[in-house]
Amino acid sequence: MGENVKYYNVEDFNIWRRKQGRNLKSPPRANFLAAANHVKNLLDGKSINWAAFGGLAILCLGSHREMPDIHIVYDAQDFPKIQKRLELDRRVRLPRGMNSLFPAKVLVSTGPQYKDKCTENADIEVDLIPPGFYGAPPNETLRKNQVLLRLNLDGKISNFKGLSILYLVKTALQFCKSQDLAWDPKRDIKFLCLSNHRRTSANALSPCWVRNLPRHRDPLHPHREHFPGPQPK
């Protein structure tokens, strides 16, 4: 493909996006999922370390909000492989000047012409986020903070790599500072807190969790241990 087709001007795209205003609609769910699966196959095909957060991750956890875009954090060492893989893919358009130092918005084409299970064509925004941006884990701990997310759609299960609940909340908090989002990160925070309340409560009351709390010696009673925190008077 020529550069005028493979690469797009970010400034022109942002101007177009702002002009849409309230008329800017989220893509159909079928197109969103087609793009998610396509990107997953591209990255997994080269054993690239990545994890989803934002809309794709909470969709897997049961959220029903609109999904305007996909957010993916990747291992910094894999950036050359990611860029090369995307450049060779005919469905992908890249922002001009894309580099590993800043987030990049990639456009993935979906629709009937690609034999997707969609009724219309749509370009899906995929935000590639370097480690450490928007509250994502740093490069050295990215792999330790990944979980396997499962999406059950009409009885068909798809697996995606995703960030842990802790980092899903942390990134949503960071997104609250952004002004140009097409979705409300506060709703994601509320969803994550409510959906994980029961599990969090169970963990907090677990004997194993209590046993792992740090204990401190009482200087007046060296054989007595207590947990840190306010003591009864």
Explain what you see.
The protein contains nine helices and ten strands. By secondary structure, the chain is α+β, with helices and mostly antiparallel strands. The strands form three sheets. The chain has a six-stranded mixed sheet with strand order 1-4-5-6-3-2, sandwiched between helices. Strands 7-8 form a two-stranded antiparallel sheet. Strands 9-10 form a two-stranded antiparallel sheet. Helix 6 packs antiparallel against helix 7. The protein starts with a helix and ends in a 7-residue tail after the last strand.
CATH superfamily: Beta Polymerase, domain 2
CATH class: Alpha Beta
Instruction: Predict the CATH topology.
Output: Beta Polymerase, domain 2
CATH architecture: 2-Layer Sandwich
| Structural class by sheet pairing and helices | alpha+beta
Number of DSSP strands?
10
Q: Outline, from the CA principal axes?
A: globular
**Mean of pLDDT:** 85
For the largest sheet, list the strands in their spatial order.
Answer: 1-4-5-6-3-2
Spans of 5+ residues with little confidence (pLDDT < 50)?
Answer: 203-233
**Could you describe the largest sheet, including whether it forms a barrel?**
6 strands, mixed
How widely separated are the two ends?
A: 75 Å
User: Helix content range of the residues, please?
Assistant: 25-40%
Q: How large is the share of residues in beta strands?
A: 15-25%
